[in-house]
Design goal:
The complex is a heterodimer of chains A (403) and B (255).
Chain A lengths: L13 H9 L4 E5 L4 H10 L9 E4 L4 H6 L2 H15 L3 E5 L2 H5 L4 H12 L3 E4 L7 H20 L6 H4 L2 E5 L10 H12 L3 E5 L6 H7 L4 E4 L2 H14 L3 E3 L5 H17 L3 E2 L16 E7 L1 H11 L3 E7 L12 E3 L3 H8 L6 E4 L14 E4 L3 H4 L15 H14 L1
Parallel strand pairs in A: 1-2, 1-3, 3-4, 5-6, 5-7, 7-8, 8-9, 10-11, 10-13, 11-12, 13-14
Helix pairs in contact in A: 1-2, 1-7, 4-6, 7-11
Chain B lengths: L1 E7 L5 H14 L4 E6 L18 H8 L10 E2 L5 E4 L10 H14 L2 H5 L3 E6 L19 E6 L3 H16 L7 E8 L6 H11 L4 E5 L3 H8 L4 H4 L4 H19 L4
Parallel strand pairs in B: 1-5, 1-6, 2-4, 2-5, 6-7, 7-8
Antiparallel strand pairs in B: 3-4
Helix pairs in contact in B: 1-9
């Protein structure tokens, strides 16, 4: 029963990640499911849904259609919707049932593309992975489609000058999107130009252009997966991590320049890069709970004086330079970790506060994550970009001591 | 009511054997229901004058909630109630889940209570490839399983797999393996080979059906041997098989 959650909701699955990437495009997105997956995505995993005009549909898959492999019904419905909506892209997103029976979504996408002349992708999400995998699968399908439908990008260094793409910054990755705006503005002030923010405020045209950008900014694990893929496919190096805190931004810029000059990917949080220096309270042990890259970035931003463990609730990626990552695969593990007396400070989604025992003496720093608590703590999301997290922790510790 | 599932390798003669068995049982005055569990849906063809009947799944797709028992049950030769579960086109969908759905629909429409058959025969596709194809073995459906096999290696291999599946379900109190029905292909030392293979699975050969051209002759007319050539020697063999079948199911001590 290790996977049983008594207090926490299930975290956003892969199909929500795929939906998140497609949301801003002029796409006809169809989740091939009975209704629950689409409802979960639009109702709980997509803050942009209410009031939007995005065309995300549910295929209303029924048992008899699954058994008989009635692909035609889905195809006919898509073709009908295409006539009305005139999308630039069609995307079919998989859910558990069609994937268990091995439904050929990519093949069906190929058929639809042949009949409509509109680029069509099939994303074989299964509902058994987390959102980061869905984001990656959707991004990979998008880039493959851009290449096959419009042709591979023509290398032209003049177009690439100081251009960057932001990857891994959907609302599922960063609940407080203003931080991404601020990072973009900061870099643009330094002479860089943003070609595309994958999944958030972008167009098909920008997606096509992004393949010729100079560098990728991978801000979370989903972004890292996409950045690695783009490096392999288009030769674009990446900088991985997010500069929490004011001083971190300068270091980030320094590493970014190095990545561009050497054309070699780098990690913002990798030694020997350290950000903050010499805090007095050197015995502060911190547990971050969430995405591995965001956690490592916080650790780097806190720097000396803090011993940070990165509790990874969406899996540990061993390809990352991440020596303090610990796997927290289920609620029991999360509960045990955040109650561990070794930690003075826990940085986690506020919904996890209920897992703390009543007599704990910890400082709990709220870091809302849409993929964990949906819109429950959306209004509580705050900026972390320009915030010195060390000072924040320090002041909360002082307040706690005073009580 | 006794319910028996007939399994065996694809193409080994399950449907032919089952249809002739149904026809012979009906001649003994028994009310028989034959349920084909194969997306090919040709199990009952020779009981229906060579015609295919609409399948349960096709009818569910067509009629939805308005489906009635009359839409999926058809009376064939000797009053045998014929049902075909049906399934998807090869390569798509989920045939296994299809069998489960068809069974559920038969239950929902109270098929057994309405027709009150003495014997239900499930004629099941090839091997036990997934949960759906094991459905006839599972609780509440068949009481016993009989496996049709020849002395050919691949047929025996499939028989072995099916036997293992039945053993695998042993602890759950599901259907028991009653034995093998040998559908002869005139392989050298066939009787000996099949008998040995049955023994290896702690069972026995219940009956040896000889190879006879009467089967093909009857099938060319879209009939069972019992119907087309009732006076033939082969019809007598099928009647003997039916007698043995009744003896086995009556003597079975079901756990």
């Amino acid at each position: 029963m290790a996977q049983l959650c008594m207090y926490l909701p299930p975290f956003s699955p892969d199909y929500s990640g795929a939906g998140s990437i497609l949301f801003d495009l002029n796409a006809l997105t169809v989740m091939h499911d009975a209704g629950g997956c689409t409802g979960n995505y639009t109702g709980h995993d997509e803050p942009r849904w209410y009031g939007s005009t995005a065309t995300v549909f549910c295929s209303a898959l029924r048992m008899i259609d699954v058994i008989m492999g009635n692909d035609e019904k889905l195809k006919e419905n898509v073709l009908e919707a295409v006539n009305t909506l005139k999308p630039e892209l069609i995307a079919l997103i998989g859910s558990p049932v069609p994937m268990v029976i091995g439904m050929d979504l990519k093949g069906l996408a190929h058929e639809i593309e042949n009949e409509t002349g509109i680029p069509t992708i099939g994303i074989e999400t299964t509902g058994t992975d987390y959102y980061d995998i869905g984001i990656f699968k959707a991004a990979k399908a998008l880039f493959e489609k851009m290449d096959s439908f419009y042709g591979k990008p023509v290398s032209d260094s003049s177009n690439k000058a100081l251009s960057f793409n932001i990857l891994g910054a959907t609302p599922l990755d960063y609940e407080y999107s203003n931080d991404i705006d601020s990072l973009q503005a900061f870099l643009e002030k330094e002479g860089y130009s943003c070609t595309m923010r994958l999944g958030y405020g972008y167009t098909i045209s920008e997606l096509r252009e992004s393949r010729s950008s100079l560098v990728n900014l991978a801000l979370s694990h989903s972004g890292y997966l996409v950045a690695k893929y783009m490096e392999e496919r288009y030769g674009i190096p990446y900088i991985c991590g997010f500069p929490f805190g004011k001083s971190a931004q300068d270091t980030y810029l320094k590493i970014l320049r190095e990545v561009i000059n050497t054309k070699t990917s780098g990690f913002f949080f990798e030694s020997p890069f350290t950000i903050s220096q010499g805090k007095d309270d050197s015995d502060i042990n911190v547990l971050f709970v969430g995405d591995q890259i965001i956690g490592e970035s916080m650790k780097a931003s806190l720097g000396a004086g803090y011993h940070v463990s990165v509790g990874c609730i969406f899996g540990v990626d061993k390809s990352l330079p991440s020596d303090s990552a610990i796997a927290l695969p289920d609620e029991d593990a999360i509960q045990e970790a955040i109650n561990d007396e070794a930690y003075d400070v826990v940085i986690a989604d506020p919904i996890m506060k209920q897992l703390l025992s009543g007599d704990n003496k910890k400082v709990f720093v709220s870091f809302p994550q849409y993929t964990v608590s949906g819109d429950i703590h959306f209004k509580d999301a705050k900026s972390f970009l320009g915030v010195d997290i060390g000072s924040l922790i320090h002041s909360q510790l002082t307040q706690k001591a005073a009580i | 009511m006794k319910k028996v599932a007939i399994y065996g390798k694809g193409g080994i003669g399950k449907s032919t054997t089952t249809s002739n068995l149904s026809a012979a049982l009906s001649q003994m005055g028994l009310k028989v229901m034959q349920i084909g569990c194969d997306p090919k849906s040709d199990s009952t063809k020779n009981l229906m004058g060579g015609k295919r009947i609409p399948t349960v799944l096709d009818q569910i797709a067509k009629k939805g909630e308005n489906l009635s028992l009359e839409d999926i049950t058809f009376e064939g030769y000797g009053g045998v109630i014929c049902v075909e579960s049906g399934g998807p086109t090869p390569g798509i969908g989920c045939a296994g889940r299809g069998i489960i759905t068809a069974f559920e629909k038969l239950e929902e429409l109270h098929a057994f209570e309405v027709y009150e058959p003495d014997i239900v025969l499930y004629d099941v596709l090839g091997d036990v490839v997934c949960g759906g194809f094991a459905m006839p073995i599972r609780g509440g459906y068949a009481d016993q399983v009989m496996i049709v096999t020849s002395g050919e290696m691949m047929a025996l291999f499939a028989a072995d797999n099916i036997s293992r599946a039945i053993r695998n379900f042993g602890k759950r109190g599901y259907a028991q393996l009653a034995g093998y029905i040998q559908n002869s292909r005139n392989v050298e030392n066939e009787d000996e080979i099949v008998s040995k293979a049955a023994g290896e699975n702690d069972t026995e050969v219940l009956y040896i059906v000889p190879r006879d051209s009467a089967v093909q002759l009857a099938e060319s007319e879209g009939k069972t041997v019992i119907e087309a050539l009732p006076e033939s020697e082969m019809a007598d063999r099928y009647r003997e098989l039916a007698a043995k079948f009744v003896e086995v199911i009556n003597n079975a001590v079901l756990v």
